[in-house]
């Protein structure tokens, strides 16, 4: 899966790269996701964000227009994402519900992406607000 991770802090970079183990085509940037940086997601199927990145209706639509279909937040909180609108756009959304260390967050983030890549569900990390056959089987 082609993925970009926004708002990467120094300690997160190594953890994400190690957890990814070259499974996904992963680009890491320190920039926050905003209207000046959304173009970095062109050609990507997924984005990884932090709770510092705000995905309101306008930003979600911009991402949708350039082909992003999957969003993973590196936080347990999802209040920075308009989940209902993401569901209307048929975008998959997952969080990291229980992880606290950079290493565990990175592992769960990559796990979520890999599950989607193979047609599965993010399970207890699934925050999708759409009907999904996979969610019914695994949720």
UniProtKB/TrEMBL annotation:
<dbReference type="InterPro" id="IPR006139">
    <property type="entry name" value="D-isomer_2_OHA_DH_cat_dom"/>
</dbReference>
<keyword id="KW-0520">NAD</keyword>
<protein>
    <recommendedName>
        <fullName>D-isomer specific 2-hydroxyacid dehydrogenase catalytic domain-containing protein</fullName>
    </recommendedName>
</protein>
<dbReference type="Pfam" id="PF00389">
    <property type="entry name" value="2-Hacid_dh"/>
</dbReference>
<dbReference type="InterPro" id="IPR058205">
    <property type="entry name" value="D-LDH-like"/>
</dbReference>
<feature type="domain" description="D-isomer specific 2-hydroxyacid dehydrogenase catalytic">
    <location>
        <begin position="12"/>
        <end position="98"/>
    </location>
</feature>
């Amino acid at each position: 899966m082609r993925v970009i991770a926004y708002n990467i802090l120094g300690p997160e970079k190594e953890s994400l790269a190690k957890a990814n183990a070259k499974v996904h085509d992963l680009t890491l940037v320190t920039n926050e996701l905003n209207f000046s940086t959304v173009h970095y997601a062109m050609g990507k199927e997924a984005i990884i964000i932090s709770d510092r990145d705000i995905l309101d209706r306008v930003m979600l639509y911009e991402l949708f227009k350039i082909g992003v279909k999957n969003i993973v937040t590196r936080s347990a909180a999802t209040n920075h994402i308009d989940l209902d609108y993401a569901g209307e756009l048929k975008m998959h959304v997952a969080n990291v519900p229980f992880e606290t260390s950079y290493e565990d967050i990175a592992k769960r983030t990559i796990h979520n992406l890999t599950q989607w890549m193979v047609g599965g569900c993010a399970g207890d990390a699934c925050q999708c607000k759409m009907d999904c056959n996979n969610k019914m089987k695994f949720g």
